[in-house]
Amino acid sequence: MIYCGVDWAESHHDVALVNDAGDLLAKRRILDNAEGYRVLMDLLVEYGDSPSDPIPVCIETSRGLLVALLNQGGRQVYAINPMAAARYRDRHGVSRKKSDPGDALVLANILRTDRHVHRPIPADTPQVRAVAILARAQQDAQWNRQQMSNQVRSMLREYYPAALDAFSTWTNPLCRPEAREILRLAPTPARAARLTRAQLCAALRRAGRQRGIEAEAERIKTVLRGDYARQAPEVEVAMGHQLLGLLLQLDAACTAADHLAEEAESAFRDHPDSTILLSFPGVGAQLGARILAELGDDRSRFADARSLKAYAGSAPITRASGKKHHVGRRMVKNDRLNHAGYLWSFAALTKSEGANAHYRARRERGDWHAAGLRHLFNRMIGQLYHCLQAGEVFEEHRAFPSSLKDAA
User: Up-side HSE of residue 10: CA atoms within 13 Å toward CB?
Assistant: First the structure.
């Protein structure tokens, strides 16, 4: 048996091949381009790589063109965390020496000795990988949009509190097009105090508002002309220019988040597993895309439901030593899936009588709100595992039989 280790870098990669006895058979440095990839594939073929018996590869990343090339044809590619690889390096010497060819040899030996305790990169279809890219990008864009909104809000507090009061009745106000349109029209309190109701009505219409325009414009005009503390006129003008620059960035963040949300929902609905995910209470298109992105569609990825629960961070972890015994929440987990699980379980409370009854029972037993939601997520993700394996949709009476009986 031959094992391959690849020490990944930005411009080049170091490759090492070892056999079952730990003998170094070959080492090579390749460039991060098409020619370098061909050199690597030729090297693997030289040492017995074939479509029916591919050589397994160990590398410190799970993304990139090199990983995509190696993952083709049924080859098992193992992505090892760099921190774990550093611990393996210490097994071979105490001098703490380090080199790229040496790291490649360490990675190859990880497969030789401990391949059974590591999992290869899931064999997901290109369709679900596309959903993962769009769902994660949409989530990142949403976080970026909120960060830009917080920057605008912080700046308005320094010189323009009237704008915050004028938009306070709206949900997530600074991300709404009406607020950004009015701020572009009047980036300073002096200009805002001169706005007429007709100008405000026109701004609301340009932003896409269709109802209650006259009343909303009158309310905003009254607030903007209220009595507020002011900065010096020169300072107000300078901060108004800074606000316009931030608004350009916020506009781009809002546009990107909305565009990626549409693309992620479209890609998710085209996937066969979307029917099962959407059958669960509290799961919509965006949330379903995030869950599918982290689970993938490789049915052999998780050995059982317990493995999936541990991966999602919903299953508790036990730390016991002597007379000490502690059961707490899991810290090492898939953070994106865990975040989606919190939203999923919270939304399910109003969509499922059984989920609500289960949550209430946990609260009566002494769980806090977050612990009750985590326990509900732990149960529902186990149900999702069963449905995906069996190809069945969610059924309330089978998922929560006892809870529904108690609720009735």
Answer: 0
* Same domain flag for 242 and 144: yes
Clarify whether residues 206 and 281 are in a common domain.
no
pLDDT in tens, 368-385: 999 999 999 999 999 999
Bridge partners of 13, per DSSP, are 30
Which residue among 234, 266, 298 closes a domain? 266
The secondary structure of residue 13, as a DSSP letter, is E
- The Cα 93–Cα 84 span in angstroms is 16
Question: Number of structural domains, the chain?
Answer: 3
What domain range is 16 assigned to? 3-121
Return the SS3 of 387: helix
Give 220-250 pLDDT, tens digit per residue: 999 999 999 999 999 999 999 999 999 999 9
Q: Give the burial class of 45: count Cβ atoms within 10 A of its Cβ; 0-12 exposed, 13-18 middle, 19 or more buried.
A: exposed
Question: Which segments of 303-396 are extended strands (E)?
Answer: 317-321, 324-328
Task: Based on the fold, state whether residues 256 and 284 are members of the same structural domain.
Answer: no
Banded pLDDT at 85 (limits 50, 70, 90)? confident
pTM attached to this predicted model: 0.85
Of the candidates 241, 266, 291, which is a domain's last residue? 266
User: Crossing angle of helices 82-89/100-114, nearest 10°?
Assistant: 90
